[in-house]
Structure formats: C-alpha cells, structure tokens
Amino acid sequence: MNSKRGQWASNLGFILAAAGSAVGLGNIWKFPGKIAAYGGGAFLLLYVLIVALIGLPVMLAELSIGRATQKNVVGAFHSLNRRWTFCGALGVITLFVILSYYCIVGGWVMKYVFVYLTGAHFPATAAPFQDFFVQFISAPVQPLLWGALFLGACIFVVVRGVSSGIEKFSKFLMPCLFLLLISIMLRAVTLPNAWEGVKYLFEIRPEAINGDTLVAALGQAFFSLSVGMGIMVTYGSYVPKKENLLRSAVMICFLDTLVAILAGLAIVPVVFATMGAEGLGMGGGFAFMALPEVFAMMPGGVLFGLAFFLLLFLAALTSAISILESCTAFLNEELHWSRLKSTLLLAVPMSLFSIGYSLSQNADRGLNLPWLDWKHGLQWLPMNAVMEKFTDNLMIPLGALLFCVFVGWIWGTSKAAKEIRGEAQKPFKLEKFWSFIVRYVAPVVILIILYFTLIQGQG
Ligand code: ILE
Predict the structure, then answer these.
(1) Is the four-CA dihedral 152, 157, 161, 162 of positive or negative sign?
(2) Cα dist. 352→250, 324, 325, 442 in Å?
(3) For residue 397, which of 428, 366, 442 has the smallest C-alpha distance?
(4) Residue 238 in 3-state DSSP?
(5) What is the C-alpha separation between 219 and 217, in angstroms, rounded?
(6) 11-366 in CATH: which number?
(7) Which tens digit of pLDDT belongs to each residue from 409-429?
(8) Which of 21, 165, 354, 432 is 20 to 30 Å apart from 426, CA to CA?
(9) CA 226–ligand 1 middle distance (angstroms)
(10) Sign of CA dihedral 283, 289, 292, 293
C-alpha cells in the first residue's frame, strides 16, 4: 500500500467531506426546480425511496471499491481487474466534463454573492431580475473570470491534500451550510401564504407518479449523491481500513436528502408566498431569477439574499472540490505529477470546455454540438445542453450501471461486503438484500432510465 497516500483523520471528517461532495448545486439549484416541475410530494416520495433502495446500495458498492484498493478510480479498477480499467477512465471523463461546467455555474453564484455583498442589489421589478441574469450569463468574458476564480478556490483547497485541505475545510464549511440553510428555511416557512408551498411539497397526488417522474427522480438521485462518476471510489479510498462503511454511507445519504428537502422548504414556499403557483414554472431559474425578486420584496431581503447565495456557494465549492480531487488523485498517482501540477494542467484543457459552455448561453455566439437519440435522430444543440445531457443522461447512469455490474458480477459482492464491514467483520444488516439490489435491481432500473433517455429522448 502507498504509505504516502492521504487518509481522513477522523470518520466524522470523512462523512462531512463526502456529504459536502453530495450536497451541491444538485440539491439547492436543481432539486427544488425538479420538485416543482414533477408535481411536489409525488416526486419527493419517489426520490426518497430511490435514494434508500438504489442510491445507497450503489454508493456502498463504490466506496467498497475505493477502500479495498486504496487507489484513485482508474488505479482501483486496474488493480482489481485490468480489463475493467476503462470503467475508471470513463469516470474521469465524466468528472472532467462536469467540472468544466460546474465551475461556470459556481462562478455565477460567486457573482451573486458579490452583488449582494457590495450592496449593488437588484431593482424590485420582475423583468430586470431576469434581464440581469440573462445578460450576465450570456456576456462573453465576465462569467469566465468568475468561473476561473471559483476554480482557483477549489485548487487552493485540493493542493493542500486530503486531511489538511479537504477534510479541514469541509469540517468548517458543512456546519456553516447547515446553519445558513436552517435559518433561511425558518424565514421562508413563516412568510404569509408560505403554507401553500409547504403543502405542495408534501402532498402526494397519485396522478403525478409516472414514468417521467421516475426517470427524473433517478437521474436527480445519482447526481445528487455523487454516485456513478467515481467520486465515492476516490473518497472511499481515503477511509482507514477499520471503519464500517455502511454507517457512513447511511449518514451521507441522510444528510444529502435532508439538505435537499430543507432546500425545497427554503425555496418553494417563498415562491408560493410571493408569486403563487405560477412562480413554479421558473424551474431551474428559481435560484438566479425568481429568488432575488422575492428577496427584494421581503423585509431584510438583502441579508436573506446574501445568506442564500453564500449557502449555494459553499455547497457548490465542497462538491467541485470532490470532483477536482477525483481527477487530481488519478494524475497524481498514475502519472506521478504533484497535486499542484495536476490541478493546473487539468485546468488548461478544461477551460476549453468551460469557455464553450459559457459562450453557448448566448444563442448568437454559442457553439452547437451533435446529440443523437433514437426518437429525435441527430440534432444540433447548444454546447451547454449537450454537455449536461452527456453527463446526466448518459455517463452518470452508465457509470452507475458499470460499477454495479463490476461489484455484482466480476469482483463479487461477497468481497465487497467484507470490505464494507470494516474491522468488525460481522455481516451487516441486510447484506443479502444489498447484494440482490447491486446484482439485479439497480442494473435493471438503470437500464430503464437509459432506455427512456437515449431511446425515448426524454430529459
Ligand atoms: N453531488 C453534487 C451535486 O449535487 C455534485 C454532482 C458532485 C456532480 O451537485
């Protein structure tokens, strides 16, 4: 074993770092929009079931690969079965593409923090908020500079290594994130009319449960839990051998889901309170377009706005760090580049993708790329849309499928289960059930999502 390799100094540090990875733009930017688009409580119910029944088992499978090999995602597959090295490489490709756009969106968040901090907050009518956002993200240079700053912040943490960089920062940032989120949520649910929003979140209308909701909930769960891309292999590889992985994974899934629900509670009632049900139509635009408008109408709104974007920034930062770390670990261990050299050399090709993503926010300037699905055939879509579809609809589910097939059928669930147990070596509760899910249920369910997205052209 490589003795110079980093390790988490404590299990709490690991849980917070992994929860920091899971809690990200997915929870606070995407999740409330998805709940709104897919009918409230029905989506939430399916989501929670999927996290528990599919997400958690897949996370355990990934963590066990990492901990067994104590290697980066490519090295891990290579050492367990050379022929499956490609599986790790696919993970790195997915992470590379995600990071290139995650930094741009992270940069948008930093810009908003800056706007609130400097007091240059927005005017109080609807259209200017949307104009502000659209003009900002479609500008040629400014979003790139903010994106570079965001990436710089990630590099700053990652070059410091596992325990004195990522773990130390996560232990400080994650409690801040919870405090901010809970205070925003308490303010949101006590607004007049907020109750309608709370009801919408939890009321299950059976007609809203259908194939579309299922596909959306599955995709969202994988993205949000950071599974299917090798992050959990990497983070698992830094866990000391004695720890039991089951408890940690349950905790990570619980915290991630809790934050998603709290974020829903912080956002959806606010939208209801100020714009009524029509406000829900803004979907993904909530965070950047609807919320500033809402904040401007509320007493103390500037402070509330600042707190919200600070929260989004912390969440995005700890997730982007995990993506960068997983790529860096690969370069550092396989090519023996220093952490600094790895992160900087990664940033160069990545910036080409980031530039393409950012420029294609503007239809006049943007690049188009081909995208193929069975139903619509070959289409030329803006580069930003293709990058998101490529990762969310294709690479993440494919990664999760391959990880399950590998653990379930190639390496073997009995070896993986031994790894999950840690020092105690007592079979963990539901070990057989976990193995059944990894071998049969998860692969079938993931194939169904791939069918809907690649053949039926959904999403
Ligand atoms: N899980 C995080 C999120 O929800 C990241 C996904 C790491 C790529 O945003």
Answers:
(1) negative
(2) 38, 16, 20, 35
(3) 442
(4) coil
(5) 6
(6) 1.10.4160.10
(7) 999 999 999 999 988 778 888
(8) 21
(9) 5
(10) negative
Closest ligand 1 atom to Cα of 27:
4
The mean pLDDT of 153-160, rounded to a whole number, is 95
Q: Which amino acid is at 226?
A: S
Place of tokens 């989506």: 43
Give the mutation target among 21, 23, 25 for probing the ligand 1 site: most ligand atoms within 8 A of CB: 25
Segment 341-348 long-range contacts (CB within 8 Å, at least 24 positions apart): 343/154, 343/155, 343/158, 343/159, 344/155, 346/96, 347/151, 347/155
pLDDT digits (tens, 9 = 90+) for 223-232: 999 999 999 9
Bridge partners, 382 (sequence order): 368
Task: State if residue 98 touches ligand 1 by the CB under 6 angstroms criterion.
Answer: yes
For residues 181-198, give the mean pLDDT: 87
Amino acid at 91: G
Q: Where are the domains of the chain?
A: 11-366
Place of tokens 């020092």: 423
What's the residue count for the chain? 459
| Residue owning tokens 């989004």 | 312
- Give the Cα-Cα-Cα angle 431, 434, 437 (nearest 5 degrees): 155
240: CB partners within 8 A, 6+ apart: 7, 8
CA separation for the pair 258, 417 (Å, rounded): 27
- Summarised one tens digit per residue, pLDDT across range 396-412 is 999 999 999 999 999 99
Pull the structure tokens for residue 263. 């974020």
Residue 381 and residue 372: Cα distance in Å, rounded?
10
- The type of residue at 323 is I
Distance CA 455, CA 459 (A): 11
The ipTM value here is: 0.97
Q: How many CA atoms lie within 13 A of 29 on its CB side?
A: 23
Centre of ligand 1 to C-alpha 323, Å, is 8
Q: Which of 53-62, 84-93, 211-220, 330-339 has the lowest mean pLDDT?
A: 211-220
